[in-house]
Amino acid sequence: MISLDDYNYHLPEGLIANEPASPRDSARLFVYDTKTDKVHFDVFRNIDQYLPKPSLLVFNDTKVVPARLWLSKETGGKIEVLLMMNEFRPGDISIKGVVDRKILPGAKLFFKSGAHLEVERQEEQFFFFNPSVSKGSLWSLLEKEGVTPIPPYIKGNTMSEHTLREKYQSILAKYPASIAAPTASLHFTDRLLEKMKREHITRTEVTLHVGAGTFAPIDEQNFKSKKLFAEYLDITKESAKKINSAKAAGIPIIPVGTTAMRTLESAAIQHSKVEPWSVEQCSKPTNIFIYPPYEFKIADGLITNFHVPRSSLMLLVDALLKHKRAKRDILALYDIAIREKFRFYSFGDGMLII
User: Fold this and answer.
1) The domain spanning residue 251 has which CATH number?
2) I need a labelling partner for 104 at 20 to 30 A (CA). Which of 24, 77, 135, 191 fits?
3) GO CC terms on record (predicted)?
């Protein structure tokens, strides 16, 4: 039986990255080769030296939206609201969110423009709001009044909102809806992508709109249900074809980040027990919770960051290490990273597991 206590560790506060490396690919790189049990330290711009050639990188092309708001209550007091735009689907009337203080159904929370969100109901820690404006107008309001929802462990941020919207965003970001970034992809630059292309390291994109399923704390109930909060994914026909062609040719598939990994594994299909695994073109919700032991169907490695203790992300990475029969588990690797003063979390350094 897995215990979350097995995924706890102490991180000196000075190792939490409060701002990204500049340029992006100047972040440090921690490489772990599971076959040789060798650990290498480098700079992220040199990641091509450690990736198999050829290989296929799979990126998550979701885009972070400025979904954090400071609205006014009818009494004039301020309230912080985080709207779960990743779950706002076509046809939905109400939108889910979380707040930083007590509110009751029927309360109205006002934008500076005069538009408002009315509290419809509460379900556990989540509230459901009815906007007074159309869906299109709500998106425009977020662009004007919302702020980038960086994680709460990033303290003392001095970056302007304009800078944050650029820095807390992958250069491949395309489809807006996420309330957190797929942070492993933040290290990539156009220069690095071009260099990898010349070395037969190709790429494709899938979409998973990041929300509570990625960053919400987990507990024993998640293990009982074997589920996380639902998030929506999309794999196009073209992307599925690239992934399946690589799989059939024996070309290693390396997802860039845990969200890309969860997307691939959520879309894995096998038409019969004698046929190989492939991914399907699909657009659907996923609540997949990957933890040891788990047999990965599609991915052969992973590019990721260093994650918060006791998180579903740590369990996913450890599941991959165990799947690849690595001699070291995730805590052993994190011990080395802490000793070597790697920077952790969303704006931190990168890790490659092959």
Assistant:
1) 3.40.1780.10
2) 135
3) cytoplasm
- Among residues 176, 148, 179, 153, the alpha carbon closest in space to that of 163 is found at 148
Residue 328 inside a domain? The answer is: yes
Coil, helix or strand for 252?
coil
pLDDT for the residue numbered 189: 98
How many domains is the chain built from?
A: 2
Looking at residue 307, the DSSP 8-state letter turns out to be P
Q: Which of 264, 202, 268, 270 is nearest to 233 (CA)?
A: 264
CA-CA-CA-CA dihedral for 306, 311, 312, 318, to nearest 10: 50
- 187: its two tokens: 């290290």
Q: Is 142 helix (H, G, I), strand (E, B) or coil?
A: helix
> CA 240, CA 139: separation in Å to the nearest integer?
30
Amino acid occupying residue 184: A
Q: What is the CATH number of the domain that holds 83?
A: 2.40.10.240
Note the pLDDT of residue 323: 98
Q: Would strands 126-131 and 95-99 be described as parallel, antiparallel, or unpaired?
A: antiparallel
Residue 247 within a domain: yes
Among 251, 334, 308, 291, smallest CA distance to 32 is for: 334
Residues 77 and 220 in one domain: no
Quote the domain boundaries for residue 77.
Answer: 68-145
Residue 32 phi/psi, 5° resolution? -125, 120
Measured between alpha carbons, how far is 188 from 172 in angstroms, rounded to an integer?
9
Question: What pLDDT score does 272 carry?
Answer: 80
Q: Count the Cβ atoms, other than its own, within 10 Å of residue 205.
A: 25
Question: Which stretches within 4-134 are classed as H helix?
Answer: none
Dihedral sign of CA atoms 182, 21, 331, 326 in order = positive
Q: Of 94, 111, 145, which residue constitutes the final position of a domain?
A: 145
Residue found under tokens 């190709």: 202
